[in-house]
Design goal:
By secondary structure, the chain is α+β, with helices and mostly antiparallel strands. The chain has two domains: 53 residues, no CATH class; 97 residues, Arylsulfatase, C-terminal domain (2-Layer Sandwich). The protein is built from four helices and four strands, in the order H-H-E-E-E-E-H-H. Strand 2 and strand 3 form a beta hairpin. The protein is globular.
Length: 165
Protein backbone atom coordinates (compact mmCIF):
# COMPACT_ATOMS: atom_id res chain seq x y z
CA UNK A 1 0.00 0.00 0.00
CA UNK A 2 2.91 2.37 -0.48
CA UNK A 3 1.88 4.85 -3.14
CA UNK A 4 4.43 7.47 -4.18
CA UNK A 5 3.42 11.10 -4.12
CA UNK A 6 5.71 13.31 -6.16
CA UNK A 7 5.97 17.07 -5.77
CA UNK A 8 8.31 19.21 -7.84
CA UNK A 9 8.65 22.74 -6.52
CA UNK A 10 11.96 24.30 -7.67
CA UNK A 11 13.37 26.82 -5.23
CA UNK A 12 10.97 25.72 -2.49
CA UNK A 13 11.56 22.00 -1.95
CA UNK A 14 14.84 20.15 -2.21
CA UNK A 15 14.65 16.87 -4.15
CA UNK A 16 14.49 13.99 -1.69
CA UNK A 17 12.53 10.98 -0.51
CA UNK A 18 10.41 11.59 2.57
CA UNK A 19 8.82 9.07 4.92
CA UNK A 20 5.93 11.46 5.65
CA UNK A 21 2.59 9.66 5.48
CA UNK A 22 0.15 11.66 3.42
CA UNK A 23 -3.53 10.77 3.03
CA UNK A 24 -5.70 11.85 0.12
CA UNK A 25 -7.59 14.44 2.27
CA UNK A 26 -4.22 16.04 3.18
CA UNK A 27 -3.27 16.81 -0.43
CA UNK A 28 -5.50 19.85 -1.05
CA UNK A 29 -4.72 21.78 2.15
CA UNK A 30 -1.02 20.96 1.83
CA UNK A 31 -0.77 22.14 -1.78
CA UNK A 32 -2.81 25.30 -1.10
CA UNK A 33 -0.50 26.15 1.78
CA UNK A 34 2.61 25.53 -0.32
CA UNK A 35 1.19 27.84 -2.98
CA UNK A 36 0.81 30.65 -0.43
CA UNK A 37 -2.95 30.18 -0.14
CA UNK A 38 -3.13 28.93 3.44
CA UNK A 39 -5.91 31.41 4.23
CA UNK A 40 -7.99 29.91 1.41
CA UNK A 41 -8.13 26.44 2.99
CA UNK A 42 -11.82 25.86 3.83
CA UNK A 43 -12.49 25.30 7.53
CA UNK A 44 -14.55 22.20 6.69
CA UNK A 45 -11.58 20.40 5.13
CA UNK A 46 -10.97 17.00 6.74
CA UNK A 47 -7.29 16.79 5.79
CA UNK A 48 -4.30 18.45 7.41
CA UNK A 49 -1.87 21.02 6.04
CA UNK A 50 1.43 19.12 6.08
CA UNK A 51 3.39 21.69 4.05
CA UNK A 52 5.74 22.49 6.94
CA UNK A 53 6.71 18.83 7.22
CA UNK A 54 7.52 18.69 3.51
CA UNK A 55 9.61 21.86 3.66
CA UNK A 56 11.42 20.81 6.85
CA UNK A 57 9.97 23.62 9.00
CA UNK A 58 8.55 23.30 12.49
CA UNK A 59 4.85 22.54 12.53
CA UNK A 60 2.04 22.66 15.06
CA UNK A 61 0.41 19.78 13.17
CA UNK A 62 1.84 16.41 14.14
CA UNK A 63 3.08 14.19 11.33
CA UNK A 64 0.64 11.29 10.95
CA UNK A 65 1.75 8.01 12.53
CA UNK A 66 -0.64 6.13 10.28
CA UNK A 67 -2.92 6.66 7.32
CA UNK A 68 -6.22 5.06 6.40
CA UNK A 69 -6.81 2.62 3.61
CA UNK A 70 -10.40 2.75 2.34
CA UNK A 71 -12.08 0.59 -0.28
CA UNK A 72 -15.73 0.90 -1.21
CA UNK A 73 -17.79 -1.21 -3.58
CA UNK A 74 -20.99 -0.24 -5.35
CA UNK A 75 -24.01 -0.63 -3.11
CA UNK A 76 -27.66 -0.73 -4.08
CA UNK A 77 -28.74 -0.05 -7.67
CA UNK A 78 -32.09 1.08 -9.02
CA UNK A 79 -34.05 -0.29 -11.98
CA UNK A 80 -31.84 1.75 -14.37
CA UNK A 81 -28.73 0.10 -12.89
CA UNK A 82 -27.67 3.42 -11.37
CA UNK A 83 -25.64 3.05 -8.21
CA UNK A 84 -27.50 4.64 -5.30
CA UNK A 85 -24.91 4.23 -2.57
CA UNK A 86 -21.74 2.37 -1.72
CA UNK A 87 -20.75 -0.50 0.52
CA UNK A 88 -17.73 0.15 2.78
CA UNK A 89 -16.10 -3.23 2.08
CA UNK A 90 -12.61 -2.70 3.44
CA UNK A 91 -10.70 -0.46 5.80
CA UNK A 92 -7.12 -0.54 6.91
CA UNK A 93 -4.18 1.36 8.28
CA UNK A 94 -0.62 1.82 7.12
CA UNK A 95 2.00 2.79 9.70
CA UNK A 96 5.74 3.19 9.33
CA UNK A 97 6.12 -0.55 9.94
CA UNK A 98 2.81 -2.38 9.52
CA UNK A 99 -0.11 -2.64 7.13
CA UNK A 100 -3.49 -3.94 8.26
CA UNK A 101 -6.48 -4.39 5.94
CA UNK A 102 -9.83 -5.78 7.08
CA UNK A 103 -12.47 -6.80 4.54
CA UNK A 104 -16.10 -7.51 5.44
CA UNK A 105 -18.95 -9.26 3.64
CA UNK A 106 -22.39 -7.76 2.97
CA UNK A 107 -23.50 -8.93 6.44
CA UNK A 108 -20.65 -6.84 7.91
CA UNK A 109 -18.79 -9.92 9.15
CA UNK A 110 -15.03 -10.30 8.75
CA UNK A 111 -14.20 -11.87 5.41
CA UNK A 112 -10.43 -11.37 5.41
CA UNK A 113 -7.70 -9.84 7.55
CA UNK A 114 -4.36 -9.01 5.98
CA UNK A 115 -1.54 -8.03 8.33
CA UNK A 116 1.98 -7.34 7.11
CA UNK A 117 5.29 -6.37 8.66
CA UNK A 118 6.47 -3.99 5.95
CA UNK A 119 10.03 -3.85 7.29
CA UNK A 120 10.50 -7.62 7.03
CA UNK A 121 8.16 -8.10 4.06
CA UNK A 122 8.16 -4.87 1.99
CA UNK A 123 6.39 -6.51 -0.96
CA UNK A 124 3.63 -7.87 1.28
CA UNK A 125 4.03 -11.44 0.09
CA UNK A 126 3.71 -13.18 3.48
CA UNK A 127 0.78 -12.06 5.66
CA UNK A 128 1.14 -12.47 9.41
CA UNK A 129 -1.41 -14.55 11.31
CA UNK A 130 -3.56 -11.91 13.03
CA UNK A 131 -4.55 -14.44 15.72
CA UNK A 132 -0.91 -14.76 16.74
CA UNK A 133 -0.39 -10.98 16.97
CA UNK A 134 -3.23 -9.93 19.27
CA UNK A 135 -1.48 -6.97 20.95
CA UNK A 136 -0.35 -5.62 17.57
CA UNK A 137 -3.90 -5.99 16.21
CA UNK A 138 -5.30 -4.10 19.22
CA UNK A 139 -2.79 -1.29 18.73
CA UNK A 140 -3.42 -1.00 14.98
CA UNK A 141 -7.21 -1.22 15.24
CA UNK A 142 -7.09 1.42 18.00
CA UNK A 143 -5.15 3.77 15.72
CA UNK A 144 -7.48 2.93 12.83
CA UNK A 145 -10.57 3.63 14.95
CA UNK A 146 -9.27 7.11 15.80
CA UNK A 147 -8.64 7.88 12.11
CA UNK A 148 -12.08 6.52 11.15
CA UNK A 149 -13.62 8.81 13.78
CA UNK A 150 -11.74 11.85 12.43
CA UNK A 151 -13.00 11.03 8.92
CA UNK A 152 -16.55 10.35 10.16
CA UNK A 153 -16.29 7.10 8.20
CA UNK A 154 -19.22 4.63 7.95
CA UNK A 155 -17.20 2.03 9.86
CA UNK A 156 -17.11 4.49 12.75
CA UNK A 157 -20.68 5.85 12.38
CA UNK A 158 -22.21 2.37 12.07
CA UNK A 159 -19.86 0.76 14.62
CA UNK A 160 -18.77 -1.87 12.10
CA UNK A 161 -16.59 -4.45 13.89
CA UNK A 162 -16.57 -2.26 17.00
CA UNK A 163 -14.90 0.65 15.20
CA UNK A 164 -17.43 3.15 16.56
CA UNK A 165 -18.42 4.34 20.01
Amino acid sequence: MNVPFIIRYPGKLKPRVSDLMLSTPDIMPTLLSMAGLKTEIPSAVQGNDLAAHLSGKASKVKAPKGVLYIRNNDGDVNEKDEVLNYFPVSRGIKTDRYTLAITIDRNKKVKEILLFDDKKDPYQMHPLDANRHISLMKRLTGQMKELLKQANDPWYRENILGMGE
